[in-house]
Hints:
By secondary structure, this protein is an alpha+beta fold. The protein has one domain (28-151): 4-Layer Sandwich (Deoxyribonuclease I, Chain A), CATH 3.60.10.10. The protein has two helices and eight strands; from the N terminus they run βββαβαββββ. It has helices spanning 59-77, 99-110; strands spanning 21-25, 32-38, 45-51, 81-87, 113-115, 129-130, 137-138, 141-146. Strands 1-2-3-4-8-5 form a six-stranded mixed beta sheet, with helices on one face. A two-stranded antiparallel ribbon has the order 6-7. It starts with 20 loop residues before the first strand and ends in a 12-residue tail after the last strand.
Amino acid sequence: MNTSRGSGGTAILIRKSSGFKIKPVEFQNDRICGVILSTDGFQDICVICTLLPSTNYSQDVYLDYLDVLSCYYGRMREDYITIIGGDFNVDISCENVSTKSNALKCFLDSRNIKVAHLLNDVTGPNYTFRNKDKSQKSLIDYICIPEILENDISNLGV
């Protein structure tokens, strides 16, 4: 398949050499998946991957999936350090404001979640998507971490 835009699905890849015990999380959703990473001597980590609906979908559909993500995050953060990564399909780094970007910002702010590559003193990508003719760039893919980890990130590579 050759498409200029993503066409769906989520996955989490983890190097065998990382030494983590990996347990899949059973989310019943086509746009959200998760794993628990465990290793002796450290708190378990839940990694959630998401692909929120693109601009081809209505605002209501986007907000519905964001609500589902919110429920899963709330459930997992009770027992694990929880990180969310993926394609959120909105740019919260620019000044153009939309209902979708406001909803995502509210979701993050109300849960003290930080977007790692938007933190001060973090070197990371300036954009993660370019349109077909490469005339526009946007930052729509994020790694979101709990506030307690914000001082532990200094460099990101995507």
